[in-house]
Amino acid sequence: MGRITTTELSWSVKGHRLLDNIEMAVHDGKIVGLLGPNGSGKSTLLRLLAGLRKPDTGTVRYDDTDLSDLGRRAMARRLAVVEQDVSAHHHVNVRQVVELGRTPFRGRFDALTDYDRRIVDEALERTEISDKQHRSWHTLSGGEKQRTQLARALAQEPQEILLDEPTNHLDIRHQLELLDLLTSLDATCVVALHDLNLAARYCDHIVLLDHGEVAASGPPEDVLTPDLIKRVYGVAVLVDREPATGTLRVTYLGTATRTASTRRPAPR
Ligand SMILES: Nc1ncnc2c1ncn2[C@@H]1O[C@H](COP(=O)(O)OP(=O)(O)OP(=O)(O)O)[C@@H](O)[C@H]1O
């Protein structure tokens, strides 16, 4: 398990600040939810955390090491990324996609070891995609592709996982299973989500983004408040606790006037 810390992280495109002064600390084994309206910067932040974009200012640290000092292979051995738009895998089956998760641990021409195969089997089982392991990638449904990508990530045996809206193609059972699975892992997770109730139920901590800035950061009960949700999303909500489980519950009452942000809108 690893710790992820960002300090004064900023990123711009053509003079427009898309992320501004992001301060975030994700502790070992915790699940941090990235929330925020469309275009608020969730995917961009995940890309910076993954080292796929270089920040203009600020740092990303994994444990005590600056991301820029971690080599690509060292990163691939500890960090798994489950992206929103799953990349196309041509002429490969599900199992071969999941086997890619073992690449950082193998030499270029090395065959899979028994250990590799066992880890791949387990990843396929935990994501309930074993029965489709010989199916061609391009024949999968959106949810099956998403579960295969998660299996590839698990096959990496990562210390940290970054997930960009991993539930968006999943039916409700698989949404709950995916988040239960993340909870059961020995890994630190940062997950971009749109569903406030799933975030309330599964996240230890929430970072709420608005126009590339942190509007609020803290435990779900501090961030998922009617005032903040109205201000950031422009939606009136009722927040209470579900009587049987005591879980925080957000009920959408309707759209409301969104408090004007001081931020400039991102470029179109
Ligand atoms: N390379 C780029 N060039 C210009 N604008 C960009 C670029 N990358 C991201 N943006 C803009 O930055 C803003 C944040 O985008 P991002 O994809 O991070 O938002 P998001 O919170 O993940 O949104 P969604 O919920 O819709 O997935 C958007 O307005 C987007 O259009």
From TrEMBL:
Residues 4-236 form the ABC transporter domain. The lineage of its organism: Bacteria, Bacillati, Actinomycetota, Actinomycetes, Kitasatosporales. CDD domains: ABC_Iron-Siderophores_B12_Hemin (cd03214). PANTHER family: HEMIN IMPORT ATP-BINDING PROTEIN HMUV. GO terms for molecular function: ATP binding. Keywords: ATP-binding, Nucleotide-binding, Plasmid, Translocase, Transport. It comes from the Bacteria. This is ABC transporter ATP-binding protein.
